[in-house]
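Rotation project, supervised by the postdoc (A.L.). Task for the rotation student: set up a whole-complex structure prediction and record inputs and outputs verbatim in this book. Inputs entered:
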Amino acid sequence: MIEITNLQKSFGSKKVLRGVNLNVKEGEVTTVIGGSGTGKSTLIKCIIRLLEPEGGKIIVNGEDITHIQGEYALAKLRRSFGYLFQEGALFDSLTVGENVTFGLKYLTDIPVGDYAKIAKEKLALVGLKDVENLKPSELSGGMKKRVSLARVLATDPKVILYDEPTSGLDPIMSQIINDLILDLKNKLGVTSIVITHDMKSAFTISDNLVMLYEGRVELAAPAAEFKKTQNPCAKQFIEGSSKGPIQMNILS
Amino acid sequence: MVYSCLFWLFKAPLEFAQTIQQITKIGVDSLLVATLTSLFTGMVLALQAGTTMQSILSEPLYIVTIVGFSLERELGPVLTAFVVAGRAGAAVTAEIGTMKVTEQIDALYTLGTNPIRYLVLPRMIGFLIAIPILSLCANISGMFGGFLVSVNALSVSPNVYLQDITTFIGVDDIMHGFIKSVFFAFMVGVVCCYKGLNTRGGAEGVGKATTQAVVTSMVLILVLDYFLTAILNAVGI
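Outputs recorded:
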């Protein structure tokens, strides 16, 4: 469904993606892991074309979208995607209900009269009730994340890109979100690409795991194989060890 | 950005609610400060002109000419554009800049719309409608300020002042200021929205972008004012 070949992206002189290769199959959950700054968010922003790659190819459903231009072409591409932002990215000036139904106006033909019902349903899916009239500033960090997820779900996208869906959530809420991702896969066949540092969550939800290291794919394997890997980088990351080939820049 | 604004203006329905909200925010909320600024500018101009004329000609002559010409052709539109750039322009840059650094702009793209269509176009229309109307209000308020000082402090007859307005201030003078205010509105809108959309970094970046937007707008208002004056005078307006 999504084929990425030799993807490259830099910010100034800093090369973030140095030739990423990745295949995401329809209806599967692919989790991307890796240390901070290894280009995980950059990768999914390239897929939805919030960023334009400098090299390589991204093919979505057989169509090369690497360098497509124009407002309509980009809007058409993004129509099939949902994107959960790391910090939620809720619109401050709108209420929770308006945030959740925001995309319906632009991405669907659903009548405005149904918006309130949809907002209620999607908020209930993420464990929230009676918050439609609150402003994002009145919510906790975890609630913001869940409202943001409800906003993604409102338009029923075929592919969802999650940027750290469980960060900032308590363990129970994290598990509810994990169950939701699996439900979307099993019941609706939604394809998901998940970025996370939460290894427990990664092994719970993933069909495939991909580890990025120094701008390249260090290891890509089905979840069961990944768990048993002897790759030193992946092993260090799974175990959360400070000793190994991955060295962080820490001031001593 | 300007091309994109024109594209969305003709290719998609206008964000009507957003546009009305922006006209209110930019226009109605700036009305008091714009008219007060102009009122006192008119009063100062009348006082300075009156006392100078009194010392030279022993009579407070040409007050309406000086106050009216200065306000209608220059100070009305310039001061209004300054006030709106400092008040609403700064708010626009800060709001769009904050949306940029918190990924709300990216969220607009992923939800099927576009920041130019959803944010910039309504604000541009807000500036283009609010600043010319505010300039006209500022002109009236400034002339009223001149009237108050002339009648109460310089003993000019109210009838003389009002008659001088109709005699010396022509439609050309009002049009001169009005045309300038439309260009100022366009320029303030473009600068403030552009700076907001190009904000980098966190809170510091938003502060920096806001300061740059206000300073750039004010300098460009004065630069544009000179060239517009030269062009409008050359075409006889």
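Student's summary: Chain B touches chain A through 18 residues (CB under 8 Å).
Supervisor addendum: DSSP finds eight helices and no strands in chain B.
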